[in-house]
Specification:
The chain is α+β, with helices and mostly antiparallel strands and 87 residues long. The chain is 59% helix and 14% strand. It is built from four helices and three strands, in the order αβααββα. The protein has a three-stranded antiparallel β-sheet with strand order 1-3-2. α1 crosses α4. The chain starts with a helix and ends with a helix.
Length: 87
């Protein structure tokens, strides 16, 4: 959700391919997240109304924040920025 919020804040409004989100997450971590775990997490966020799921013409998954997800993501985003400034 943090990454999707940052992408939206940067001006991109289209759904983001799941594989791109996973690549961004894994590039920022020492140990990667397995694709299956990532997909399960995304589907859970969809079920809880935080993400909306899309499929492009090649049927690849893409995600976008819902209005509720955007509000929650903003809280997370601002808190993390604040923590980074305190370091």
């Amino acid at each position: 959700m943090f990454i999707l919020y940052a992408i939206e804040a940067g001006g991109k409004a289209e759904p983001v391919p799941g594989i791109k989100i996973l690549e961004m997450i894994n590039s920022a971590r020492q140990s990667g997240i397995y694709g299956t775990n990532f997909r399960i997490s995304c589907h859970t966020l969809v079920e809880n109304g935080l993400l909306k799921k899309y499929r492009d013409t090649s049927l690849k998954l893409a995600f976008k924040l819902t209005e509720y997800g955007r509000k929650r993501a903003e809280e997370i985003y601002l808190k993390r920025l604040e923590e980074d400034q305190d370091k």
